[in-house]
Amino acid sequence: MARLIVVSNRVATPTETKGSAGGLAVGVFGALKDAGGVWFGWSGDVVSETVANAGPTLVQEGAVTFATVGLTKKDYDQYYRGFSNATLWPVFHYRNDLARYERDEYAGYRRVNAWLAHKLIKLIEPDDIIWVHDYHLIPFAEALRGEGVRNRIGFFLHIPFPSPQVLQTIPPHDELVKSLCCYDLLGFQTRNDQQAFHDYVAREAHGVVRELGLKHRQDKQDNHSEHEGEIEAYGRKLRTGVYRIGVFPDEIAEQAARYESRQHVLDLKQSLEGRKLIMSVDRLDYSKGLVERFHAFEQLLEHSPEWRGKVTLVQIAPPTRSDVASYKVIREELEREAGRINGRYSGLDYTPIRYLSQQYDRWKLMSLFRESQIGYVTPLHDGMNLVAKEYVAAQNPDDPGVLVLSIFAGAAAELSGALLVNPHDAAGMSEALERALSMPLAERKARYETNMEALRHNDLGVWRDRFLSDLASVPQPR
Ligand code: ADQ
Prior knowledge:
alpha,alpha-trehalose-phosphate synthase (UDP-forming) activity, six-stranded parallel beta sheet, Trehalose_OtsA, binds adenosine-5'-diphosphate-glucose, 16 strands, glycosyltransferase, globular, alpha/beta, Trehalose-6-phosphate synthase, Glyco_trans_20, Rossmann fold, ten-stranded mixed beta sheet
C-alpha cells in the first residue's frame, strides 16, 4: 500500500489525534496510521526567519511523522491573516463586502505555498499519495509540480466554492483556478460547490467539463454514489468529486451519554430551573449567522410571550482570527445585540441569552447538546457544518432534541430530519423554534432516526476512504 502524506495549514499534535480535540484530526490520523506517512504543515507558531528555515521539526508517532514548520511574522501576515483569511475566506463565503485584496498579500500567499512545498520535497517518496486540505493551500500542487513531483496529489476544499461571478471579485481568480487544475482530484463538500467550479472552468477558462453523472460502485451496499466530473483545462486532465465530510456518530453518542451525569451538566440543569434549552456552538465567525440567529430568537420572545422566561439560548462562540478586522466587528456586534435583547427580556432570575466566549472541551459540548431541546445551527454559508452532525449524534434516542438547520449549511443536503430554515428570514426561524419547542416526542424520534441513519451511512471514515481510494485510482501523472 502506498504511503500517505497529508498537508494542511495546521497540523494536529500527536496528543490531539488521540483525545477529544476534533473528529477530523482523529479521522485523518486513522488513515495515516493505516498507510504510514507524514502529516505536514504549519506548527501554529510565529518564529524568526532562522528558526523557520531550520524546519521542518519531525516528531515520530508509530508509522506517522508529524512534520511542522513555523512561519515568520511577514509570512503569517501575508499568507494566513491576509490572503487566506481576509480575501479567500470572505469571498468563498459570499461576503465580498468584507473582503480586501492586496497584491503583496497574494504574492506572500504564493511565496509561502512554494516555500512549504519545497520544505516537503525531502520527505516525499515516489509512490506516496499526497492529500492537501483547504483554501490556504490552493497553489501547493502547482509548486510541487514545479519542483518535479509526479505523485498523485488530491485537494479537499472544506469551505464552499463560490459561483464564478463571485470568484471573479478576486483579481487573480484565473490563476487560482489554474492552480487548482494542477491537482489530480478535487473534492468538494456538496454538489453545488462542485458545480460552481465546473461552471467557472467551462465558462471562464474555456475548459472541457465532462459530468460523468452518478458513480455506481461495485459494492451493492454502497449507495454513496456521487457526481463525478472530469476536467480538461490549462493543459491538464483531472477529476472532481463530492465527498461529504461526516462524524463518527456512535462514538459521539457514547461519549455524550457518558458525560451526562458530570457536574457541569448538573449545574446547567439546575440553573435552567426547568426551562427549555436551545444550544448553539460555533467559532465566532461572520459566516455562522450569529446575529441573525439572535434576532430570530428575539422575535420568538416578542411575538410569543408565553415563551418569555421559559426558554434559554446558550451561545458558545470563542473568538477566532481576532487579528482580522472584520472579526472584531462581528464580536462587538454580537455582544451589543446579546446585551440589548437581554436588557429587554431578562427578569431578576432569567437571562434569555447566555453568550459564552470560552472554548469548551469537545465531550463537554456533546453532553450539553444532549441536555438541550434544540440545536440551533444557522450559518449564512458553510461548507458542511459538523456541529449540526454532532448535535444529532449526541441526542438521547429516547428523548431527542430537534435540529433547526440553515439551508445554506452543506449538512442540509443530508439531514432531512432537521427543520430547515433560511437564516435571512427571522420570522421563519422564529416559527421553526416554536415548532421545535412544541414538537411531540414521536415526531422528534422519527426526525432523529432519519438524521442518525444519514450520519451512520456517511460517517467520517466513509468520507476519508472514498476520497483516498478515488485518489489512488487516478492515473499517475507523467
Ligand atoms: P469550521 O468553520 O470550524 O470548519 P464546523 O464544521 O462547524 O466549522 O466545526 C468544526 C469543528 O469545530 C467541530 O468538530 C466543532 O465541534 C468544533 N467547534 C466549533 N465551534 C466550537 C466551539 N465553540 N468550541 C469547541 N469546538 C468547536 C470548516 C468549514 C465547515 C466544515 C469543516 C470540516 O467551515 O463548513 O464542516 O471545516 O470540513
